[in-house]
Design a protein that fits this description.
It contains three helices and two strands. The protein is mainly alpha-helical and 100 residues long. The protein starts with 11 loop residues before the first helix and ends in a 13-residue tail after the last helix.
Length: 100
């Protein structure tokens, strides 16, 4: 088994705690949100659609969660990443999951 690499990922329990914390903050702010937590492979690990949150934002929440590590990787605030995306429009059709 020397060629097998052990991979660590977020647990479902931690993912659910993260969703619960985000939902609590949204309630505190008086807004309804969709909250998506992805694992290290970009797959949905936990999700919550609060009552009153709009349906189109379900997909947007998942795509923004997928994009978040890229924003951190570039060391850029989201506004700078958005400007970069406008400059590289040809890249985006190949990566439809990336969202700003």
């Amino acid at each position: 088994m020397a060629n097998v690499v052990k991979k660590h990922s977020i647990s479902s329990e931690l993912a659910q705690k993260m969703v619960d914390a985000a939902v609590a903050k949204a309630r505190e702010l008086g807004v309804s949100e969709n909250v998506a937590i992805l694992d290290d492979g970009g797959n949905l690990k936990a999700f919550s659609r609060m009552d009153g949150a709009s349906m189109p934002t379900i997909e947007i929440a998942q795509k923004k969660a997928y994009t978040a590590p890229y924003t951190a990787l570039f060391g850029s605030p989201l506004r700078t990443f958005s400007t970069l995306s406008r400059a590289t429009r040809r890249f985006w059709p190949a990566s439809p999951r990336l969202r700003v």
